[in-house]
Amino acid sequence: MKIGNFNFSKKTIIIGGVVLLILILLIVSNNVKKQNAIKKAQEQAQEQAKEQTQTNNSASVDADAQLQASLVEKYGNPPEGFEWDVTGNLVAKGTDDKSSAEEVLYRYLRALSILDFSTAEKYSKDSTVIADYKNFYDDSTKKVDDYYSDFLRKQLKSSLASMQIMSVSDTAVFANGTQNITVKLKLLDLSNRDFWYADKDKLFNDMYTYDRTESSDTKKMQYLYNYITDAYGTADNNWGKVGLKEYQVELVLTKGNGKGWLVSNDGELAPLLQYEKGFDVASYINSQYSEWATNKDISKSTQSIDDDDDEGDY
């Protein structure tokens, strides 16, 4: 066979082809060996990383276990589902790892609505709502006018008892596993400033009697607080004169040390259960009453002068 200016025998071409094939096979074999070596190195690296993670986790678990053991010696055995923090406060572990975040959220809200704070604490951490309620029983927060604090506590209690869970609107899931769940709730309508107008005449006259006849501001305000508390009503009468209002509230859920879900942020719910930013309806009604009482005093004084003038003319 002639290729270019050279003549090649058939035998030469066959030998050349075999050599070429051997070279190709050697190259392919070397590439396969390299790929296998790379794969093996990657697998070894992954295995080492896994072992290191397990070692770190084990060390972390051991450290946590040792810390808890020392805290138990100091503070005693915590209730089931809780552990101690370094300052001696109970922290929920989130041990119910079979329940979904939504199921835990429902249990938490349901527990709040029946004032079962033991259960609510089991399914939450750093709850603003629970902390606010506890503050009303904390001696360090009490003021001289405890009847006002009692009124605000009863107001919060009524708001919690009025809570109705309507539905879950949406759920946002983040890369770290956190879930932000938006839920529709019905709560006592604390924005209602008009519910007392139908009782205004009797309410103001009774307050006036305590204020002017008995010269007792305390009795006057206690009477007003009792009226408002009664106006919150109960479920039996559809929450009295105030009624309910629908809200959308976002709550944050994260995993606890026990791998179960915990409500870790209820900051949007807390202000809806109480009067916000210094406003409460008792102060509002009392300011309206003060103006009414002043006008009544002026009217009585004017009438007295007119009566004296009439007697003088006589």
Write a structural description.
By secondary structure, the protein is an alpha+beta fold. The protein has a domain at 95-302. Helix content is 55%, strand content 15%. The protein contains eight helices and eight strands; from the N terminus they run E-E-H-E-E-H-H-H-H-E-E-H-H-E-E-H. A four-stranded antiparallel beta sheet has the order 5-6-7-8. Strand 5 (164-173) and strand 6 (179-188) form a beta hairpin. The longest helix has 66 residues, at 10-75. The radius of gyration is 38 Å and the shape is elongated.
- Largest β-sheet summary: 4 strands, antiparallel
**Count of extended strands:** 8
Uncertain runs are none
In quaternary terms, these chains amount to single chain
The rounded distance between the terminal residues' Cα atoms is 157 Å
Shape: elongated
Helix content: 55-70%
Order of helical and strand elements: EEHEEHHHHEEHHEEH
Q: Tally the helices: what do you get?
A: 8
Mean pLDDT across all amino acids = 84
Instruction: Report the portion of residues in β strands.
Output: 5-15%
**Estimated radius of gyration:** 38 Å
Structural class: alpha+beta
What strand order characterises the main sheet? 5-6-7-8
